[in-house]
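Hi,

Apologies if this is the wrong queue. I'm a grad student, and the batch job for Type II secretion system protein GspG C-terminal domain-containing protein from marine metagenome produced an output file that my downstream script rejects. I'm not sure whether the problem is my script or the file. Here is the sequence I used:
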Amino acid sequence: MMIVILLIGIMSAVAVPRFARRIELAELRTEKEFVNQIWEELELHAEEQFESTGTESWPENPLTVLGRTRNVIITYELGIPDEDN
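Support response: The file is valid. Your script probably expects a header line. Output copied below for reference.
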């Protein structure tokens, strides 16, 4: 019985850190894919702006190219918004 418990302990000591590392790598991969998607859409937006206006420009809020926005405005006067503003 002690040998079984010892083997389970050794296996879990090896498996848990490897599993945690896999989760971390998956999160990093997802973040990189999201950043690459934003970059590609920004480049496409800039190209479309250049074709229509003659000036290459990006939107003020980069998430608008993905159809994702947040109605949050941070200014020096208001600071970071809370529940009241």
